[in-house]
Write a structure and sequence with these properties.
116 residues; mainly alpha; 5 helices; 74% helix; 0% strand; elongated
Length: 116
């Protein structure tokens, strides 16, 4: 028996957009100072998007999110300082990730140049 995972895509995309909202709002609060719990929440959202996208075969999204997740992991365990340039980069990455998820949802090609 074969399971058609495409019937679960709507839930996956909804959860992605919710996670992107968590990431964006959390990053905007990091502008005001470092909060380890907020970094953990942002990391968990990225981790969920990465895992879900890999499960559904959206490997471009998974790979892109893995890079974000690695940076967030370094921030949460103190190997990398939270700086405004990093927060700005992560906010831009959320925008890119949102466009990647939207493209996948609409069965369009991902703009890999923007992701790079």
């Amino acid at each position: 028996m074969s399971i058609d995972l495409s019937e679960f895509h709507d839930v996956f995309f909804e959860e992605c957009f919710e996670g992107l909202g968590v990431m964006e709002s959390g990053l905007l609060t990091l502008d005001k100072g470092t909060d380890v719990e907020e970094i953990n929440a942002i990391f968990r959202a990225a981790h969920s998007i990465k895992g879900g996208s890999a499960s559904f075969g959206f490997m471009d999204i998974s790979s892109f999110t893995h890079v974000m997740e690695t940076l967030l992991d370094e921030m949460r365990d103190g190997r990398r300082q939270v700086t405004q340039p990093i927060v700005d980069l992560l906010l831009e990455s959320v925008d890119v990730l949102r466009s990647m998820v939207t493209a996948a949802q609409q069965h369009e090609e991902t703009n890999l140049d923007r992701a790079a």
